[in-house]
Structure formats: structure tokens, C-alpha cells
Amino acid sequence: MSGLMLLPVFLVMTFFRQNVILTLAVLIGLIHIFIARNSSVEYLIQDLWFTLDRELFLSIPMFIFAGVIMSSGSISARLVRLMRAITSPIPGGLAIATILAMAIFSSISGSAIVTMMAVGTLMYPALVKSGYGVKFSLGLLCSGGTLGVIIPPSILMILYGLSTDVSVTRMFMAGWGPGLLMVGILCLYAFIRNRHVETTPIDPKEVWEALKSGITALLMPVILMGGIYSGIFTVTEAAAVSLLYALVVEVLLFRNLGPRQVFDLGLDTVKLLGSLMPLVAFAGSLNVILQYEGVPQALVAWTQSTFTQDWQMLVMVNLLLLGAGALMDESSAIIILAPLLAPLGAAYGYDPIHFAVMVIVNLQIGYVMPPVALSVIVATSVFKQSFMTVSRAVMPFIGLMLLVLLITIMVPELSLSFVK
Q1: CA 173, 178, 183, 187 torsion-angle sign
Q2: For residues 232, 233, 238 and 244, what is the CA-based torsion angle, rounded to 10 degrees?
Q3: Most buried residue, 68, 89, 193, 268, by CB count within 10 Å?
Q4: Position 23 confidence tier, pLDDT thresholds 50, 70, 90
Q5: Cβ distance 242 to 42 under 8 Å?
Q6: Residue with the larger pLDDT of the pair 4 and 217
């Protein structure tokens, strides 16, 4: 059976809108049985086990569970209150408060969707009521939610590390440069676009009360990132700390959640993992086959013979990533493409951390890039707007995100200056 025969299988299953996990499982099974040399179904089962049998993978469910708990509790509301109190006298202050709250919350949850839902459900009515406009508000919340992709702890960075053995801790460090740049550009755009919106004087008493209320939320990223960067605990241990912190704050300190609610949130997390874990397992098996068959090496050789200049390779890679991000969910894209692209970046002399951050920032845009656009799809449900309305709303923000991507590519120091 030729490898080209897999294309019709893929196209037929895609046409009939089969789940990406089922499609991947069928394709990998066919590869093991009919294409790969000296392989069998037994090897497929071994690959699935060895892919998931890694300590780092434990961090993903714990970060997701912690984010779900905090989005259902009061931490996001306390963050929003503090940011609103600080930015009230600035033109576009409410939009800037939204961006800052999303940036801080994303450094806790590590998830774009959780960040958008936790902060967006609080801020969308307030933004529209304050005269910021429906389209601007929708675009801001969708794009601001993606800060959880590049500001650590990022689930996509963990998946990249699992797929390529690149240091997740160093990627976390490198993500701060592009992340802070994205925050700054979004805040500047919010300031310019909404400079006509009425402001209110700062209230020192409200700032103090909001600070006392929100200090628990501000401390969490400090504890997590400080512990990881200082070497006190690993990424997996940091995930356990974040989950324990979320439970202590929301259940014991503020008493916003009871045992039954925590149990239900745990079930929601398991449902999320039910789609992610099989995807990681099957993609890991595919990567083993590709490595055994020498596909990454063949791709490097073909690329070097076709594209003699670095910029030509970068254009090809970025167009591929933008297309993948627009047509499939980002977890699938990074698990499948990262093992193929990482050797390509190394062959052209790019620092593996810088190249990883470039891939992450690129796929970040996929969260708001139609037609798949996971953040857009979730926003249509959460904010009760049509898919086309939200898609048009994110277009100016996609331009800003592309600008950040260009700067990230052209200025490696933006990422690497944060790395030890």
C-alpha cells in the first residue's frame, strides 16, 4: 500500500466530518499494518503507552483543572475589579483593564479558552454598556484570550516539549517577551481606538480595596513562575501547586465552591482530557513511525535543496503553520507538525527555543483565524453572536498578532533574552 493511498482515506473521512482522533487513528493503523517496515498493531499499542507514560504529561490535566476551578470561582472577578480600579482614568481604560486581567489570568490557567471565558463573561456586558462597541469588544476578548498560549504556563508549550524534547521551562521563560509585547500592542490599540470613551478619576480607596481583594490572584503567577525559574519545583510540580492553590483559595479561603461543585468541575476536566489524551497518544505513535522511516530527515534534505535562503524556509514554515492553525485545532497541529519542523529549524541554524516560540506565536493566531478558529466558535456560544460577526470582529486583531509574529521572528532577543 502506497503512502499516497492515505490521502483519499483522509479526504473521505474529512468530507464526512469524522472526528480528528478517529481519522488519525485510522491513518496510523493503516501505516502500521500496510506501509511501515517491520511494524504491526502490537507496535501501535506500545507507542500509545510510551507516549502517555511521561511525567510531564501529568501537568496538563492539573493546569486545566486549576484553570476551570478559578474560572468558576471568584479569582477572575477579583482580578477584573483590580485592573478596572487602576486603569479607570486612562482613555480606553476598561479595554486595557480587560487585557491586563486576561494576561494575568492566562499566567495562571495556561489556556486560551478558559481565559477568554473567565474574563470575557464578566467584561463583555460592561464593555458594550460603556460604549466600546460590540465588534471591538468581541475582537478584544477573542484575541486577548489567546495570551494564554504564549504567556506561561502554556498548554501548547507543554505539548511542544512532549513532542520534541525541547525544555518546557526554557520555553516558559522565552514566552514572556512576545507575550508582553502582545499585551503592550493590544493596550496601545485599545487606547487609540477608544480615546473618546468617557473616563472616571481614580479612587484610591477603591484601588486599595481591590488590591486587598485581588492579592491572592496576583500572588499565584509569582509563586508558580518563581518556583519554576528558580528550580524549586518542576513544571509538573508547579501544576500540582497551582491546583492546590486554586482549591485552597476558592474552597477554603473564599468558600465560593463546595465539594459537589469541585467534583462536577473535575468531571468537566476529564471530558476535556477525553479528547486531548487520545490525540496525543495517536500523534505520538505517528511521530515514532515518521522518525523510524526517516521522514524528518527527508523533509530537511528536500527543504535545503529547494530553499537556499533562510527567509524562504521561514515563509514556507509560517504559511504552513498559519494554514494548519486555520484548518485544525492547535493541539492537533502542534503535536503533528512540531516533530517535523523542529529538525528543520535546527538544520537552518535557528535556536530551538526561539524556533519553538515562533511556532507557538504562529499557532496562537489560529485560535482566531477562521474557518476553525476555536476562540471564535466558543465566543459565538458565550456571547450569543453569529460566527460571521465574531469573525469580522477579530480581523483587526489578527493584523496586530501578525505584527507580533513578525517581530518575534526578526528579533530573536525578544524571546532569548528571558532565557537563562
Answers
A1: positive
A2: -80
A3: 68
A4: confident
A5: no
A6: 217
Stretch 365-384: mean pLDDT: 82
Three-state SS at 154? coil
pLDDT one-digit tens code per residue, 249-302: 888 888 888 889 999 988 888 887 777 777 777 777 777 677 666 767 777 787
Locate 272 and state its grid cell.
476535556
Show Cβ contacts of residue 21 under 8 Å, excluding neighbours closer than 6 positions: 275, 278, 279, 282
Kindly report the number of other CB atoms within 10 A of residue 420's CB atom: 7
pLDDT-based confidence at residue 17 (cuts at 50, 70, 90): low
State whether residue 74 is helix, strand or coil. coil
Q: Which residue has the higher pLDDT, 7 or 369?
A: 369
As a whole number of angstroms, the distance between CA 43 and CA 134 comes to: 53
Element (H, E) at 76: helix 75-87
For the residues of 250-277, what is the DSSP string, one character each?
Answer: IIIIS----HHHHHHHHHHHHHHHHHHH
Q: What does pLDDT average to over the chain?
A: 83
Buried b / exposed e along 50-67 (16+ C-beta atoms within 10 A): ebeeeebbebbbbbbbbb
Note the residue count of the chain.
420
> Where in the chain are the domains?
36-416
Find out whether 403 and 182 touch, Cβ atoms under 8 Å. Answer: no
Within 10 Å of residue 334's Cβ, how many Cβ atoms? 30
* Region label for 294, one of left (φ > 0), alpha (ψ between -120 and 50) or beta (otherwise): left
Question: What is the identity of the amino acid at 62?
Answer: M
Given this model, what pLDDT does residue 400 score?
94
Does the pLDDT at position 186 exceed 90?
A: yes
